[in-house]
Amino acid sequence: MNAYLVFVVKEHLTHLRLEAAQRRATQVDKPSLRQRIASAASLASHRLAMPLDNRGTMFPSLQDHPYRG
Question: Which of 35, 37, 38, 52 has the fewest CB within 10 Å, making it most exposed?
Fold first, then answer.
């Protein structure tokens, strides 16, 4: 009985390893942490360099709003 269980466990582990290898092979590479931080910093500095008129506001205007009091 023990030999059979060892065989079944090994087969299951082999199956799981093959699935993991297939997932790694089809996985899309994402940008590194350094690239993502550099991109966010660049975007932030670009937005801060814009004139205040073009940035808009954080809150929507209340013109023609049905709950405006």
Answer: 52
Are 24 and 16 contacting, i.e. CB atoms less than 8 angstroms apart? Answer: no
Q: What phi, psi does 55 have (nearest 5°)?
A: -75, -30
- The predicted-structure confidence for 5-62, as pLDDT tens digits, reads as follows 999 999 999 999 999 999 988 887 888 899 999 999 998 888 887 766 655 566 666 6
**Cα separations (Å) of 65 from 15, 46, 55, 56, 57?**
59, 32, 22, 18, 16
* Alpha-helix residue ranges (DSSP H) falling in the chain: 2-26, 33-49, 52-55
Indicate left, alpha or beta for 56 from its phi (over 0: left) and psi (-120 to 50: alpha): left
